[in-house]
Design a protein that fits this description.
The protein contains 5 helices and 2 strands. The chain is mainly α. The relative contact order is 0.19.
């Protein structure tokens, strides 16, 4: 899961045991690498956190590389 997910995690953990059909224990297992997550459950999690699906699929290092790139200089 990405940094965006972890920013919203406290909101998710305060929710009831099931969010959009996903148990908190299931999400915890996914985070620890003990369970695999299906695309459907990633979608459900994104909906529960009110995030776009891509926010949970984008690798953190990819987002960082975009932020750290210098602005291109125009060649005239």
């Amino acid at each position: 899961m990405t940094d965006t997910y972890h920013q919203h995690l406290p909101l998710f953990q305060e929710q009831p045991a099931l969010i959009n059909g996903i148990a908190r224990s299931y999400v915890s297992g996914v985070e620890r690498g003990q369970r695999n997550i299906s695309l459907l459950n990633i979608l459900r999690l994104a909906q529960a956190l009110n995030l776009p699906l891509i926010a949970l699929l984008e690798p953190p290092e990819q987002k960082e590389s975009f932020r750290s790139r210098p602005t291109p200089v125009a060649i005239t």
